[in-house]
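Incident log, entry 3
Record: 8826_t:CDS:1 (357 residues)
Problem: checksum mismatch between cached and fresh output.
Input:
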Amino acid sequence: MNIWFKYEGEPVEISFKGKNVNALKEQIKTKLKNQLGKFDIDQITLRAPGEHESLCAEMLIDEGFVTTYNEPVVVEKNCEKRFHIQCYDNEGLPLDKFQQFTMCDNEDFRQFLKRVEARGLEDIEDNDKIITSFKNIQANKFYRISASYLKAVKNGVMWTQVEDVALEDETRLAVANIITKTLKSPVIDFPNRVMHDEAGQAIMEWDGIFLCCNKVFLCESKHKMTEEKIATLVKRLGEFPNKLEVTKDFEFKKLLGMEYIGVACATFFPKELRQKCVDKLGLVVAYPGGGRYCVEVPAKIYGLAGENPEQVATTIAKSPGVSKVLTAIWAWYIGSVCSTCNCGSENAQLYTLVGLK
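Fresh output:
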């Protein structure tokens, strides 16, 4: 007998000689193999127009079937899948959220991969498994995009994290050395970096804390320093005394009543921003340069504000461990300051290179 049905709105007719619905499905699959590609015949449902009950697989093809279903039969592609893919920011870094996608066939999947320039999807629970075909997608599962450019971003992030750890260690050492030399007193590396409230919740954390004389140096290390990050540092610096009042940590309580100075460290630190930090904000800054780490220190740290420039230079020159080269640098800078502003202003700075002895 001849049976005709609709597929995607187009009439299709086949001559059927089988005895059950599965045989009919197989014949439909053969008829449409060039249009459908690979698919599971169980995903096809045969329905009479206007009715919603599916034919049972065991139903035999008989005269009643011909009589009952001599109207067009609709072939449904019941293979729609909903699943989740991890989101990324504009720089290609993964975010802690997922977006739900709905796709119906391999063409939808192929177009999606083309649009995001991906070779496939990775199962969140199995990084080694790359899915390149829609049939291997599981509904309601979570995936991430597998693409060479995202891998490059990931590797870059991992390397950046390694660099940041090295930055934190080396700049903290550089800053500690300068503080020791300039204040002529040993630096104490404060044992704790995280402050807690009475409930035990962390309320403030620093990348490093140094103590020297009556001064507390609070270090913030970043891979790339920006105006926004400096603003956050200054804000946290202003909040520090209030946090000391409410902390339950006895070690931090010892820091009450001292002078608090911010230290900004970064691998990439624009010159204009460094000058603003030292000149206007009174921060210590540290950054790599010339094969070593440079540290710029505001003059107020030395307690020299208001003194005559010649007296300042003499005081610096007599400080233990300060080289003639360092003294010359200071004298040169004082000369430039005197030519542009009042002598001994608080904006006067000492530019030093770590390692000069």
